[in-house]
Design brief:
Elements: H1 60-65, H2 81-105, H3 113-135, H4 142-166, H5 171-191, H6 199-226, H7 236-266, H8 274-302
Helix pairs in contact: 2-4, 2-8, 3-4, 4-8, 5-7, 5-8, 6-7, 7-8
Length: about 300
């Protein structure tokens, strides 16, 4: 199963359509060539053949004896947590800069608000297309990911400015703080072992996300052809409820993202795949931010 994100899909670290972290059980018929005795090599798309340098590593058997992931030297071009942090900072930094520029340069006064809406929607559509393209590419494309982040930033800047100016003053900052709180909370819970990301967790999250997306699409179709807010899933008490559900789903996908990064490092994923981790984390954080912004807007409309 491919690791997926709430915003439809993306490639994971596995190249055999398996989620790396869930594919460690020994297969019938014995271990594959080059994986004998290595509990982490089963289903590992980066497993080295038996003659690889790792097999000659005097510390390898000690790692395996204690059940620890193989320790890959930093000089081999393998992904590290520093790579993930750097790429994620670059992607989010691009998004934040373009969002700030859109906020400052695109007016949202009554006379020009339609133009701003048009630019924001156009940027969102372009960002969606770029996200789809990257999701189905076999390799990460840094230029594509950063371009996606730039267009997504324009969309977020316009939408945030409109909500902040016309609906709820300070809404953007509140949504940012909420998103950061969810990120920090899920990270602490994941590292503490309070969240166990396994096959059952993955299946539950994917089923819930699919149902959520389909329901929102139906609501959008009713809104387009019937006017108003469609079935009312994005306004009033129902809107708040589904907004909370969306944030909880985003939190679950953050846990999947953390597991994906952890497995990629343990399996010795190539360094360039840190861009996939940055892409996935950015998609999830944008999802959570938009749900917070929507809830804040609804709450202020009801006041």
């Amino acid at each position: 199963m491919r690791s997926r994100n709430p915003v439809f899909s993306r490639r994971g670290f596995s190249r055999d359509n398996g989620y790396a972290g869930f594919n460690t059980a020994p297969q019938a018929g014995g271990p594959a060539v080059g994986t004998q005795g290595n509990p982490y090599a089963q289903g590992n798309p980066y497993a080295q053949p038996s003659g690889a340098p790792y097999a000659q590593n005097p510390y390898a058997q000690q790692d395996l004896q204690y059940g620890a992931p193989p320790q890959v030297p930093a000089t081999t071009g393998r992904m590290t947590i520093d790579d993930v942090v750097l790429r994620t900072a670059s992607t989010l930094g691009t998004l934040i800069v373009t969002a700030a520029l859109a906020w400052a340069l695109l007016p949202v006064d009554v006379a020009h608000i339609n133009r701003s809406y048009g630019i924001g929607i156009g940027a969102a559509l372009i960002g969606m297309v770029l996200a789809f393209v990257q999701s189905f590419k076999r390799k990460a494309s840094p230029a594509l990911i950063l371009t996606y982040a730039a267009f997504e930033g324009v969309f977020l800047g316009v939408v945030s400015n409109i909500v902040d100016t016309h609906l709820a003053s300070g809404a953007a900052m509140q949504a940012v703080i909420g998103t950061m709180a969810v990120f920090a909370g899920v990270l602490v819970a994941y590292k503490a072992g309070w969240i166990r990301v396994n096959r059952r967790f993955y299946g539950f999250v994917m089923a819930a996300a699919l149902g959520f997306v389909l329901l929102m699409m139906v609501n959008m179709l009713f809104a387009v052809f019937g006017g108003g807010d469609g079935l009312g899933f994005r306004s009033g008490p129902l809107g708040i409820f589904f907004g909370v559900v969306g944030i909880l789903l985003g939190a679950c996908f953050l846990a999947l993202d953390f597991k994906q990064v952890e497995d990629g490092i343990a399996y010795g994923a190539p360094r360039e795949e840190a861009w996939l981790a940055a892409f996935g984390l950015t998609l999830t954080l944008v999802w959570i931010y938009m749900e917070f912004l929507r809830i804040i807007a609804i709450l202020n409309q009801n006041d």
